[in-house]
Amino acid sequence: MTSDRGAGAGGAGSSTRAGDVALAGAPNVGKSTLLNALAGERLSIVTARAQTTRERVLGIVTDEQSQLVLVDTPGLLEPRYLFHRAMLAEALRAVREADLVLLLLDATRPEERPPAEPLALLASRRPALFVAVNKVDAGEAAAVVALEAWAMEALGVRAHRLAAKDGTGVERLRTDLVAALPERPFLYPPDDIAAQPVRFFVAEFIRETIFERYEAEIPYATVVRIEEFREAADPVYIRATIYVERESQKPILLGVRWERRPGRRSKPFWTPAYSWTCG
Q: How many CB atoms lie within 10 A of CB 221?
């Protein structure tokens, strides 16, 4: 699935185009959905919860003449605590370093705008900046027009209209992004579809399940590490460890029922709510 950057095909004088495209925007604006739509693969996890993406996810879209390296980033937001600051720093780094930047706006939440620091950085990338209004199928027409007007006024960019979930406008956007890429050899081998190893995506899909099954702070307090991955086994064997922030969160994740006995400390009765068979 993956290999090292810089191992792509092509040489000096190649007529191919290649480059990074940072997908930026507020939490839950549809960046991961758009990455999956452009890549034609389910690479980035998608949930109804905000701030699902913690690390940059790279999806690679290659045809005969071009290679888009799509960078899914954490949401642009006003950081309220240290973890938010770390994710915002990751997103801003991607915006600074990418060849192109695509700012996504949400037609169902037209009042949302990038905070001051990200907005200033986006404006500084003006020659390489694209803007798209996503979820136009669900938003009010007036909201779409208002966001388009804001993009032109604040950033000097004409916005694309998208419904990434059903693919509306995705191909036209891809064509425009490719046309703006620098001429250079491919950055990755043509057969690669992602830059991370398979274990990364296995961990992400487990984390996606946690987001779908649990509420409150549990999804945001977990980290998944793949301890063993036997791809050659039939079926594939996976052993993963889920880390939580606090001891008190383990019973919630495992489905433990606690019983309080008079004069004694509470003792857990381990009753798993469900089990995962990986192998």
A: 17
